[in-house]
From TrEMBL:
<dbReference type="InterPro" id="IPR052937">
    <property type="entry name" value="Inner_membrane_protein"/>
</dbReference>
<keyword id="KW-0472">Membrane</keyword>
<keyword id="KW-0812">Transmembrane</keyword>
<dbReference type="Pfam" id="PF03733">
    <property type="entry name" value="YccF"/>
</dbReference>
<keyword id="KW-1003">Cell membrane</keyword>
<keyword id="KW-1133">Transmembrane helix</keyword>
<feature type="transmembrane region" description="Helical">
    <location>
        <begin position="7"/>
        <end position="33"/>
    </location>
</feature>
<feature type="transmembrane region" description="Helical">
    <location>
        <begin position="69"/>
        <end position="90"/>
    </location>
</feature>
<feature type="domain" description="Inner membrane component">
    <location>
        <begin position="4"/>
        <end position="54"/>
    </location>
</feature>
<dbReference type="InterPro" id="IPR005185">
    <property type="entry name" value="YccF"/>
</dbReference>
<keyword id="KW-0997">Cell inner membrane</keyword>
<protein>
    <recommendedName>
        <fullName>Inner membrane protein YccF</fullName>
    </recommendedName>
</protein>
<dbReference type="InterPro" id="IPR031308">
    <property type="entry name" value="UCP028777"/>
</dbReference>
<feature type="domain" description="Inner membrane component">
    <location>
        <begin position="77"/>
        <end position="127"/>
    </location>
</feature>
Length: 147
């Protein structure tokens, strides 16, 4: 089912958002001062291409033992920079694609996936794309560790 939804997403306009993320990734590579954003761009590019079966999870959830206040502050600074230069137009692109996809009954699941991607596109630094199963296992391990 995931494969069918990923193909449907690609056909109904997901390729446009994937190209938008790919363009943002290339721009972040070309501009030297945005090089720290490249990994996050590439991770969300993969998620935009195949949103079903994958999930964007914050790195603190995947590796809670490597939390660092310094790295979190740097990530926040990069996210603010991202929001100003790249995030807002990628968010608008995902929202408009999601609205167009939701106009047809068959496109509602893919449109909802684009609304989730719109939220991620505003604040992507520090997120990694993993399978849904791996994300669930990381959340359960964190819950066991806390309690």
């Amino acid at each position: 089912m995931r494969t069918v939804l990923n193909i449907l997403n690609f056909i109904l306009g997901g390729f446009l958002t994937t190209f938008g993320w790919l363009f943002a990734t290339l721009v972040s590579i070309v501009l030297i001062f945005t090089l720290p954003l490249t990994r996050s761009c590439w991770e969300i590019t993969k998620l935009s291409l195949v949103p079903f079966g994958n999930e964007a999870v914050h790195v603190d959830v995947l590796r809670p033992d490597s939390k660092s206040a310094f790295l979190n502050a740097g990530g926040t600074f990069l996210n603010i920079f991202w929001l100003i230069f790249f995030g807002w137009w990628l968010c608008v692109m995902h929202i408009s694609t999601g609205i167009v996809q939701c106009l047809s009954i068959i496109g509602i699941p893919t449109g909802l996936a684009h609304f989730k991607l719109a939220a991620i596109s505003l604040w992507p630094v520090g997120r990694r794309v993993v399978s849904v199963e791996e994300a669930q296992a990381a959340r359960e391990a964190n819950a066991r560790r806390r309690y």
